[in-house]
Amino acid sequence: MDFVYAANPSRVVFGTGTIERLGDEAERLGLERLLIVSTADQTDQAHLVASQLGARAAEMFANAVMHTPVEVTERAMSVVGDARVDGIVAVGGGSAIGLGKALAMRTDLPQIAVPTTYAGSEMTPILGETKDGAKVTQSDSRVLPEVVVYDVDLTLSLPPRLSGTSGLNAIAHAVEALYARDRNPIVSLMALEGIGALTQALPGIMDNPDDRGARAKALYGAWLCGTCLGAVGMAIHHKLCHTLGGSFNLPHSETHTIVLPHALAYNLPAVPEVKAQLEGVLGPDPARALYELAGTVGAARGLKDLGMLGTAINEATERALANPYWNPRALESAPICALITRAWNGEPPQ
Ligand code: NAD
């Protein structure tokens, strides 16, 4: 065994009703004038956060959107300057947390992230921003939130189907961590635990979205999977989703959910030891199990259902192969085109 393990420094507060501890967390960091960021859909939760922070809540910016467009960040930057804030609280999914990270990148202000989906961005030093339609990703330690407050209560309102696709988005981080070039035993432990927690929790959330036990398990799994994403490199699945999302403007978690079984089926023959690990959690056919789980959560089946045109499959294949990157199985045009075609049709993985 030969590996390097590096942990990202961040403090995690996990539980139910934990936003009541936001004031204490801000005090620990010495912050007195916080900017609260959210999407327009989550203004209520942003107000809830503000009420917890009391006089420490200086300003609110509730215009975060998917893929962190630079124009939105620039508008938020003017609020940062005008309100002379000394820290950022991002409440929401990857969109709100992405904006908080973009502000931290430009200002080095401390961040408290309050995640309400399972996307996992809060655990990574990665920032993806879009400018003129192109998405550029960078990794920088300034971007990693100082504190993450996971409050199970804030996830109860995440609609069941979105909970399902967001959970599968998290599982995708853990699956690729298992066969990452820089994988290591600790990250693999977290990955398997995270996949297990989410696969158990998601059907329960479909049955009863208010089931706090299932919600807690899903959020716990999401934390672990997000940690995996922040710790090791990703491969073909994330590359494909990045390409498809950026080039064809497809929704983030739904795209991950559709592509994951196919990307895993592509890679498994090259990583028999990972196949054995996943069989322990997902059963004898891990790729098929993830396809079935996507069905259980009522996710869209094929990329065509997300609005991608069939004529774009060749372009997607070319783009996926344009900048070579590491993957456990060699990247070949014909099998990748077949993979995307099956994902487009919504067929089971092969
Ligand atoms: P999102 O943040 O856009 O949330 C989807 C929708 O659900 C939004 O309208 C949001 O307001 C709403 N929502 C979120 N939580 C809710 C709740 N608890 N109750 C009710 N509504 C709720 O989507 P996402 O999938 O969390 O994040 C996607 C974005 O995050 C993408 O831009 C993606 O690139 C980015 N991302 C980045 C990283 C990273 O490490 N940099 C990791 C994962 C995702």
Write up this protein:
The protein has helices at residues 22-29, 43-53, 70-83, 94-107, 160-178, 185-207, 212-231, 236-248, 252-267, 272-282, 286-296, 313-322, 333-345, and strands at residues 11-15, 34-39, 57-64, 87-92, 111-115, 126-131, 134-139, 147-151. The longest helix has 23 residues, at 185-207. The mean pLDDT is 97. The protein has a six-stranded parallel sheet with strand order 1-8-5-4-2-3, sandwiched between helices. With 350 residues, the chain is α/β, with parallel strands linked by helices. The protein has two domains: 11-155, Rossmann fold; 160-345, Dehydroquinate synthase-like - alpha domain (Dehydroquinate synthase-like, alpha domain), CATH 1.20.1090.10. Helix 3 (70-83) packs across helix 4 (94-107), helix 5 (160-178) runs parallel beside helix 7 and helix 12 packs across helix 13 (333-345). Residues 39, 41-42, 66-67, 92-96, 98, 116-117, 119-121, 124, 126-128, 154-155, 157-158, 162, 166, 229, 252-253 line the site of nicotinamide-adenine-dinucleotide.
What would CATH call the class of the largest domain? Answer: Mainly Alpha
Strand order of the largest sheet: 1-8-5-4-2-3
Average pLDDT, rounded to a whole number, is 97
Radius of gyration: 19 Å
CATH superfamily of the largest domain: Dehydroquinate synthase-like - alpha domain
Into which percent range does the helicity of residues fall?
A: 40-55%
GO molecular function: alcohol dehydrogenase (NAD+) activity; maleylacetate reductase activity; metal ion binding
Keywords: NAD, Oxidoreductase
Pfam families: ADH_Fe_C, Fe-ADH
Family: Belongs to the iron-containing alcohol dehydrogenase family.
